[in-house]
């Protein structure tokens, strides 16, 4: 019952955070100079008619109240520019399916490589494998996403012609997947390494060894379990970010996912699409952080959801 009460408090806090994000995004978006119809090839009178049609000529607080009313009913409006007249919920749902398929593969690669390799680096501290892994992970973290994407495209698609540039062709998901997975993989390696090194120096592991427990059980049951808490913390926002699609990866490789729409909506001043993608992304982050908070209790019951 106590756990349920604490989870309920976290859910209420998540709902409050959601509306704070919606409010801040809405007002900041309207501070951007211009409006969605400035690029329309129409005279001032026609643009004024369009603004009146979509309610953009009304005071900002009236627009905000009307947007919240629609949001309560699951209506995020229609696209103004990029896909005129199409429902935002439909655009977000369709594009997220693409991003999710790509992101899920990249997330699995990051976890399946990052955590084990980080453990190897930690257990082989200051030895040759550790040195090689640390150099590779440092390079992977320092490389910007657009550089990774450009190098992959230049080498694999242009120079050696082993992979297609187009996302829709067979093998077209490999380069964007690598671009998405590289940074989180390298970061997980460093995070897992530092976490397991910290746990290995704890007194309770010396006690377990003194009791005659095998080194395998000490490391892979007790040490690894407790070292996963920082990893779980990072996996919350990482999962939300990678499942919604990397902005760079989707733009460079022309992936029709949510990340590409997020970038193009800002440049086009498509207000409703900006709000829709931001709300979806923020909701996913809030939900994943809530899931991580609950997972803390499973991994380490000593952690309390206060």
Residue share in helices? over 70%
Strand content: under 5%
The overall pLDDT, averaged over residues, is 84
Tell me about the largest β-sheet. none
Fold and architecture overview:
It is a single chain. This protein has 306 residues and is mainly α. The chain has helices spanning 2-30, 44-53, 60-72, 88-123, 128-142, 145-159, 174-200, 203-210, 215-243, 247-252, 258-268, 271-299. 29% of the residues are buried.
Give the structure's gist in a few sentences.
By secondary structure, the protein is mostly helical.
Considering the chains and any ligands shown, give keywords for the structure.
about 300 residues; mainly alpha; flat
Which secondary structure elements does this structure contain, and how are they paired or packed?
Layout: H1 2-30, H2 44-53, H3 60-72, H4 88-123, H5 128-142, H6 145-159, H7 174-200, H8 203-210, H9 215-243, H10 247-252, H11 258-268, H12 271-299
